[in-house]
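re: that chain from earlier
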Amino acid sequence: MRRRASLVLLAVAVFLAALSPLLRWYAYPRLAKIPPNQYQEMVLEAKDATLVDYATLQPKKVDKVTIVQTLKGNVEASKEIEASAGKDVVVWDTLSYIMGPDGKMVSQIPERYIFDAHSQDPVHATGEMVDGDPVKREGIEFKWPFFTEPRDYLYFDAQTRTSSPIHYVGPRKFKGMDVYYYEQTVPWTKVTLPKKMPIEGIDPATFEQATGTSMWYTVKAMFWVDPVTGAPVNAEQQIQQEMRGGSIAGSAPDGKLTVFAGDVKIREDYSDATVALVKSNRTKVLALHTYAPIGLAAAGLVLFGLALWLEARGRRPEEDPVA
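^ sequence. v structure.
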């Protein structure tokens, strides 16, 4: 009876020992991916900001500028691209809707971001764009790879349509989480005007040509990233936008008219919700990558030891009843 039990335990131990590396190196790389149907909404605010009054074309201090960012996974588009790309692809349609203190639109910028569901590397396909302009992204945007490394990454800035290094600064604590902190500074760069602006009767596409005025932009972007999921749990952007020269900004000091200047941060309630979501996803990723493989290997070793112990007891000579 003991021998039969030891053989059963030995078989289970071998099964668990074989399942452990299979789960870690075969299942995890295939199962750890961004779902194609993800939907997320985020509200950011810039308090005590400077915003141009488009009625008078004069900058003024405002209590708050609000940015509502929506992110929606386009399942149908991802399936079409997967057919030609031969890998799991995610398509995110995003919209940044900027409102002044009166709740009226200042501008809105749509994007389509196409990337590998596992590595987060960009996938170049028809439809990749920012504000209707075709782009070819290099590097990451919105999200870092799973198990983010403490190093610099190439990060895409949607305003300038360019990529530049985002620098790893060091480990940080954010709301009880151990995170990696990154910074990127984009120097003053000439950019295109948003296609939707609150300027009646003026087509932004011909605005620069008609007025001789150009838009310039700089930002210091800061991200606090969970290294397991690669998801930012906090973000902050110190943004400045100016119109320069021409009939619009020519009379302003130094020929520069401030369009927007503010420190954009995630609203506190959305920050708390983001941290809770990332913590939940972090547990799932670690269970698949670390906890389950180690637990299976440990259970296999315990059962293997128990099987050997039962086998040793089964082979021990029985005591002489007379003695």
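Residues 268-315 form the longest helix (48 residues).
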